[in-house]
Design a protein that fits this description.
The complex is a heterodimer. By secondary structure, chain A is of the alpha/beta class. The longest helix of chain A has 10 residues. A 10-stranded mixed sheet of chain A has the order 4-3-2-1-5-8-12-13-14-15. In chain A, strands 7-6-11 form a 3-stranded mixed sheet, with no helix packed on it. Chain A has one domain: Glutaconate Coenzyme A-transferase. Chain B has a single domain, classed as Glutaconate Coenzyme A-transferase. Helix content of chain B is 23%, strand content 27%. The longest helix of chain B has 13 residues. The chains are: A alpha/beta, B alpha/beta. Chains A and B meet through α2 and α3 of A and α5 and α6 of B.
């Protein structure tokens, strides 16, 4: 199982029927692959749909039905389409149960940076700042380190997406919960030792008990 | 009743240097024929306010490629490397606004409100040069309203009063842009006789539409 699959499978465990969930572009969007079709979870795409379905068969695309990355999608029975003010009203107004986003850095205060690398990449924040500020739970789904460089750091060096503390960090090596006291190591990835996790993490991690290995099935 | 005009005639109404709100999300729900006509007539020095600049060769991306845009207010430019290049080269002045904030600023401009108070962007680069207002002990950023000389919007269906209907995720910024432009140019996919669109499905009342562009076919 590769890192992304581990992360997507573990994040899928956070979801319950009836929840309204927004999955970010890229790694977070893989989470839907590990939920049953009858999961009862409503997926929102911020460009204006609740009840996002998978990609349609070739030749059955609707040019007016895409996800937030601009890719063609289907809508599930019971779907609703929305304009942008309604869509972000749901996000900012606390109606969105969970958002899953990718991350460039998360720091000891649980603050996320994921929208720009000054001088290198300025894609814009899109909906990320509203999602992190407004969703009831914010789950960061990212690989633990980028080319050997830790992404969980004492203090973000990149511009923050929000000053709000995220709810959970899920990587292929660990599940970490940011709390008032700091980052608590809750679970280990498959075949990951606590030592290996500590070595790959620049931020201080709090060990409250021997963390169990994460369940993926 | 309004007689439909050609896309070329619509583009001729928009002078160089005008500020233009343009609907669409990654080109979905953008007024493609009016954009093409603006490119054809060689429009220059436009201020464009839109969610994104799509990608090269699509929607607003075409205006970027021919250098028609001098100033841009958008939430996301990550999928159009040409916009980023021109921004870095100083050819386009870019203001990035979080997506939920941007649509509310347009809504505020359109519905006569003096601004928007939002927690989105607090403590981030977005806060720069903005007032922080406390309401009942909670801090919010004051974001100013946006209006423009023109609003260019797309709809799936219009009647000859200018009443508009939209399809699925093609609603996005179109609904509120129709309130925030001094002159509103609507490009419908199709036009039906007055009375065909039931009042309950009209999303943009025809009184807001200044000019109707001919149907696509």
């Amino acid at each position: 199982m590769d890192a992304k699959e581990v992360i997507a499978r573990r994040v899928a465990k956070e979801m319950k029927p009836g929840m309204l969930v927004n999955l970010g572009i890229g790694l977070p969007s893989l989470v839907a692959n590990y939920l049953p079709h009858d999961s009862g979870i409503f997926f929102q795409a911020e460009n204006g749909v609740i009840g996002l379905g998978p990609r349609p068969p070739e030749g059955m695309e609707d040019p007016d039905l895409t996800d937030a990355g601009g890719g063609f999608v289907m809508a599930m029975p019971g779907a609703a389409s929305l304009d942008s003010a309604m869509s972000f009203g749901l996000i900012r107004g606390g109606h969105l149960d969970m958002t899953v986003l990718g991350g460039l850095e998360v720091d000891e205060e649980g603050r996320l940076a994921n929208w720009m690398v000054p001088g290198k990449m300025v894609p814009g924040m899109g909906g990320a700042m509203d999602l992190v500020s407004g969703a009831r739970r914010v789950v960061v789904a990212m690989v633990h380190a980028a080319k050997g460089e830790p992404k969980i750091v004492p203090r973000c060096s990149l511009p923050l997406t929000s000053i709000r503390r995220v709810s959970l960090i899920v990587t292929e090596m660990a599940v970490i919960e940011p709390t008032e006291a700091g980052l608590v190591l809750r679970e280990r990835g498959p075949d990951c030792s606590v030592d290996a996790i500590l070595r790959a993490t620049a931020a201080r991690l709090i060990l409250e008990a021997e963390p169990p290995e994460m369940r993926l099935n | 009743m309004k007689a439909a005009i050609s896309a070329d005639k619509a583009a001729a109404l928009i002078p160089d240097g005008a500020s233009v709100l343009i609907g669409g999300f990654m080109g979905v729900g953008s007024p493609h024929r009016v954009i093409e006509a603006l490119v054809k007539r060689g429009a220059k020095s436009l201020t464009v306010i839109a969610n994104d600049t799509a990608m090269p060769g699509r929607g607003i991306g075409k205006l970027v490629s021919v250098g028609a845009i001098r100033r841009l207010i958008a939430s996301h430019i990550g999928l159009n490397p040409e916009t980023q290049k021109r921004m870095i080269a100083g050819e386009i002045e870019v203001e990035l606004s979080p997506q939920g904030t941007l649509i509310e600023r347009i809504r505020a401009g359109g519905v006569g409100l003096g601004g928007v108070l939002t927690a989105t962007g607090l403590g981030t680069l977005v806060e720069k040069d903005k007032a922080v207002v406390e309401v009942d002990g909670k801090p919010f950023l004051l974001e100013k309203p946006i209006r423009a000389d023109f609003a260019l919007i797309a709809a799936s269906k219009a009647d000859y009063y200018g009443n508009l209907e939209y399809s699925l995720t093609a609603q996005n910024f179109n609904l509120y842009s129709a309130l925030a432009g001094d002159v509103v140019i609507a490009e419908p996919h199709t036009i039906v006789p007055v009375g065909v669109i039931p009042p309950d499905t009209v999303r943009t009342p025809g009184v807001l539409v200044t000019h109707l562009v001919e149907r696509a076919f």
